[in-house]
Amino acid sequence: MRPLTAATNPFAWDNCQIGGGQANQSAAYLDGGPVNVSSINLTALVPTQDSIQEFRVQTNNLGAEFGRFAGGVINLTTKSGTNNYYGTAHEFLRNKVLNAITFFHNRAGIERPAFTPNQFGADLGGPIVRDKLLFFGSYKGFRLRQGQSFTYTHGHKGDAKGRVFERTHRSRPLVVSGS
Fold this sequence. Notes:
39% strand, 6% helix, 2 domains, single chain, 4-stranded mixed sheet
């Protein structure tokens, strides 16, 4: 399942438009409980994708229990433990090797700035007491190492004093690089 996102909402995951409703007029439920904040209807809890067993998006003819929403309703059901241990782990690491460099950085001889997003996670489920007490847990992490580099052009000393006509040579670029 891909998160239902829109680029215009800087606050939450659930800024989607369902069934002709406006953004933030939909509801999200996790295992039957609402996860929307009542004041501005933002989603307060976003489960990991691997922890979802099934989902359902209801768009029209909603029941009376969903009467306060003009859009749709997203129902999520989480996974539960079983009598067998099972789990997954994953990692996605990207580095700057395949990233493009800007024209100005290339011209000034500046290296690509650091850009290393790292997404990782794990899921684990199983029995604590066989046939009676089961568990399931999920974790996702994200780290971003991102550097910035800048190029500036500075003029001749006379430019600051208003004597641009005294310039005897072309401006030289001043290169400042940082990570």
